[in-house]
Write a structure and sequence with these properties.
Rossmann fold, single chain, about 220 residues, HAD family phosphatase, alpha/beta, about 45% helix
C-alpha cells in the first residue's frame, strides 16, 4: 500500500474523540424530536457537516421550528460539557501523534467543528503542537462533503492533497477527502459500524489498524 508520508490530517469528531455517540443522542432528543417540523432524518444525513450547514439542510428538507440563532446556540451549549467532560480520546492518540511528529510528517486536525470546540479537545487532551488546525468556519466555501476544506488544508501545509493522509469516519467526511484527492483512511468504530465507507482507500477498525496503515 503506497501511503503518503508527508502529512496526516485527522478529523476530530468520531475519530480523535468519541463525540458522535453523544451528538447522535442530542439529535434524537432535541434536533430530530423538537427542532424540525416533520420527517425522520437519519444521523448519516448530517454527520460530518458543520452545524450551521446542518440547520440549512434540515430547514430545506424537513422544515425547522427554531431559528438558526437558536439552533446554533443549542449546539454551542451542548458542546461545552460534551467536549469538556464526556468524550474520550482515541486510545493511544498522544503516542500516535508523537510518532507522526518524530517521523517528520506534518500533523493537523481538520474538522467541521468550530475552533473553540476543537480548542477544548486540544487543551483537555494535550494534542499540541500541531502544524494545522482548520475548522469549516475558517473557509468561505461549503463544508463536507464538498472537497474545499481538505483542498484548503493541503494548501495551508504547502502540499498537494495527494501527499496527505486524511483520517475520517463519516460518509460526508470521506467523500470530501476523496474528492480533494487525499489518501483517505476511513476509521471504523461503534457509531459508524453500518455505514458504507468504501469510497476510502482503506477502512481500519480502531487505533491499532490505523497505526499499522500509517506506519506500514
Amino acid at each position: 500500500m503506497n501511503v503518503p508520508d508527508e502529512a496526516v490530517l485527522f478529523d476530530m469528531d468520531g475519530v480523535l474523540v468519541d463525540s458522535e455517540t453523544y451528538w447522535h443522542q442530542f439529535e434524537d432528543d432535541w434536533v430530530f424530536a423538537a427542532a424540525i417540523e416533520s420527517g425522520d432524518p437519519s444521523h448519516e444525513e448530517v454527520t460530518g457537516m458543520n452545524y450551521r450547514e446542518i440547520y440549512d439542510y434540515l430547514s430545506e428538507t424537513y422544515g425547522t421550528t427554531v431559528t438558526k440563532t437558536e439552533f446554533v446556540a443549542a449546539y454551542d451549549d451542548r458542546a461545552q460539557s460534551l467536549y469538556g467532560e464526556q468524550v474520550r480520546l482515541m486510545d493511544g492518540a498522544n503516542a500516535l501523534f508523537d510518532d507522526i511528529r518524530d517521523d517528520g510528517r506534518q500533523l493537523g486536525i481538520v474538522s467541521s467543528a468550530p475552533q473553540d470546540w476543537i480548542g477544548i479537545v486540544r487543551d483537555r487532551f494535550g494534542l499540541d503542537p500541531l502544524d494545522l488546525v482548520l475548522s469549516a468556519d475558517d473557509i468561505d466555501k461549503p463544508g463536507k462533503p464538498e472537497p474545499h476544506i481538505y483542498e484548503h488544508a493541503a494548501e495551508a501545509v504547502g502540499l498537494d492533497p495527494k501527499s496527505c493522509v486524511v483520517v475520517e469516519d463519516s460518509v460526508h467526511g470521506v467523500e470530501a477527502a476523496v474528492r480533494a484527492g487525499a489518501f483517505t483512511v476511513a476509521y471504523r468504530s461503534t457509531h459508524n459500524a453500518e455505514l458504507d465507507l468504501s469510497r476510502a482507500a482503506v477502512v481500519v477498525d480502531g487505533p491499532t489498524e490505523l497505526r499499522e496503515v500509517l506506519f506500514d
